[in-house]
Design goal:
The complex is a heterodimer.
Chain A: E1 3-4
Chain B: H1 3-25, H2 34-47, H3 58-80, H4 84-87, H5 98-110, H6 117-131, H7 134-143, E1 145-146, H8 148-174, E2 178-179, H9 181-205, E3 213-214
Antiparallel strand pairs in B: 1-3
Classes of the chains: A mainly beta, B mainly alpha.
């Protein structure tokens, strides 16, 4: 299942 | 990391380079909205608070520092440094940014990822970045004609988030656990705001001769 991941983008 | 995200970050860096060159070499901030630059400084200073605990890569941490430093330097130069500060026209660049910051702050409180203080601030910064270009676009609209470097600056800025949209599509289809509805929505709105500008930018740059970008 998709889950919001920790912010790895700028 | 994928090519879309990398090109997006390079386009973002290019926009900083163009703007810094313009205001330092050209010694003028005419046509540049200080309001937009202030919003970007708020965006980066709030979103990158996690610099101190969310270490995902050296690349990320390095660019976070670069973006905070550049946006702060730009605001400082336009606001305090001579002769640039005298070329900023507060009558023209008078978009009421409190009407952007307020709703984004409320949205960040209500719609965020984990209900922690940082996530509320992070969501606020994502929403604010989506609308931060508005004062700049309004300023260009008032002036009707866009100075060449400024047009490249806005184009690079629009391309950065447009490339990020492609990066999100790519990640959605290649990573089975990737989900980021907040940035998908905000990034789409952000890129949408540039569509009208891109149309006029393309019309003016078509066929190689660099006719000035005219906004109706």
């Amino acid at each position: 299942t998709r889950k919001p991941e920790k912010h790895d983008e700028l | 990391m994928n090519i879309f995200r990398f090109l997006g970050d390079m386009s973002h860096i290019l926009s900083f380079v163009i703007l810094l060159l313009k205001i330092t070499q050209g010694k003028s901030a005419a046509g540049i909205s200080l309001r937009t630059q202030e919003l970007y400084m708020i965006v980066f200073c709030s979103r990158y608070l996690d610099l101190f605990w969310n270490f995902s890569s050296l690349y990320n941490s390095f660019l976070k520092v670069v973006f905070i430093a550049c946006s702060s330097a730009i605001v400082y130069i336009i606001r305090f440094k001579s002769p640039q500060k005298d070329t900023w026209n507060p009558e023209l660049d008078n978009f009421p940014i409190q009407y952007l910051i307020g709703p984004c702050a409320v949205a960040g409180l209500l719609i965020n990822q984990d209900w922690t203080p940082f996530e509320m601030i992070w969501a606020f910064s994502i929403y604010l970045e989506a609308v931060a270009i508005l004062p700049q676009l309004f300023l260009l609209q008032k002036q009707g004609e866009v100075e060449n470097l400024t047009s490249h600056y806005v184009a690079a800025l629009g391309a950065y988030r447009g490339l990020y949209l492609m990066n999100w599509v790519y990640r959605y289809f290649t990573e089975d656990d990737y989900l980021q509805r907040i940035v998908w929505f905000a990034g789409t709105v952000q890129t949408g705001l540039y569509i009208d500008f891109f149309y006029h930018y393309y019309q003016s740059k078509r066929g190689g001769l660099s006719r000035p970008v005219k906004l109706p």
